[in-house]
């Protein structure tokens, strides 16, 4: 099975965020005017550096095209035009989407384990429509006729209609991946992770055997 384009994109983006890393929360700039805008720009501009600190190997396309949603931000403070402001806003939102998507997935993995337990323990409770999580991110787009359109963000688009059991987290490297087979455990069957995982399993088995032997003596 293959993930949808939206899901593949989501997985790619969230994997740029390292496991357990709490990405900086960008706050909305206080006040108005160029100072506030610069505050926001500075925060966005510092992002690649922040990510680098988290030992992320950023490639140029990520900075220029992916993170900033395909737009380059003009850093010239003398150009205070509306289009530039909208671009900044867009870049800001883009960052938040990636950040929140990673958080949402983390929550989903946690809740899913819990849900499996609930379904197992209470198979007849009729709770097949259980609320897994409340997802409230969407973009409101006002078109040229001034009509409001609610569009789900990257996470919303990617997750719609997906069997969430197929989205998994590699126990070795922490990357999110789409399970192409039911028994997929690690991100890639021909990766280091697969080797590490089987070694760990072997060691665990060995330890259990040893423990049993000790207990029997
Ligand atoms: Zn892995």
* Small molecules bound in the structure, each named once: zinc ion
Distance between the termini: 49 Å
| Number of distinct beta strands | 4
Number of domain units: 1
- On the 0 to 100 scale, the average pLDDT is 71
Strand order of the largest sheet: 1-2
- How would a crystallographer describe the biggest sheet? 2 strands, antiparallel
Structural class estimated from helices and strands = mainly alpha
Helicity, in percent? 40-55%
Secondary structure tally, helices: 7
- The helix/strand series, from N terminus to C terminus, equals HHHHHEEHEEH
Describe what you observe in this structure.
The chain is mainly alpha-helical and 217 residues long. The protein has one domain (5-164). Helix content is 50%, strand content 7%. It has 7 helices and 4 strands. The chain has a two-stranded antiparallel ribbon with strand order 1-2. The chain has a two-stranded antiparallel sheet with strand order 3-4. A hairpin with a 5-residue loop joins strand 1 and strand 2. The protein is elongated, with a radius of gyration of 22 Å. Bound molecules: zinc ion. Zinc ion is lined by residues 170, 172-173, 175, 186-187, 191, 193.
């Amino acid at each position: 099975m293959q993930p949808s384009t939206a899901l593949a994109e989501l997985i790619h983006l969230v994997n740029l965020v390292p496991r357990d890393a709490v990405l900086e929360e960008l706050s909305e700039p206080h006040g108005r005017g160029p100072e506030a805008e610069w505050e926001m720009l500075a925060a966005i501009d510092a992002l690649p550096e922040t990510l680098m600190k988290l030992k992320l190997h950023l490639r140029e396309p990520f900075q220029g095209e992916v993170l900033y949603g395909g737009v380059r931000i003009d850093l010239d403070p003398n150009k205070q035009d509306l289009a530039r402001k909208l671009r900044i806003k867009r870049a800001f939102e883009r960052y938040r989407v990636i950040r929140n998507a990673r958080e949402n997935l983390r929550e989903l993995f946690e809740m899913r384990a819990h849900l499996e337990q609930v379904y197992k323990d209470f198979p007849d409770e009729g709770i097949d429509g259980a609320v897994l999580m409340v997802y409230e991110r969407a973009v409101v787009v006002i078109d040229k006729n001034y009509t409001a359109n609610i569009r789900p963000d990257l996470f919303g688009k990617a997750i719609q209609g997906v069997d969430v059991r197929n989205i998994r987290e590699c126990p070795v490297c922490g990357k999110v991946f789409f399970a192409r087979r039911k028994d997929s455990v690690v991100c890639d069957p021909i990766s280091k992770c697969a080797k590490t995982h089987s070694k760990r399993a072997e060691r665990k088995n060995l330890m259990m055997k040893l423990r049993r032997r000790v207990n029997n003596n």
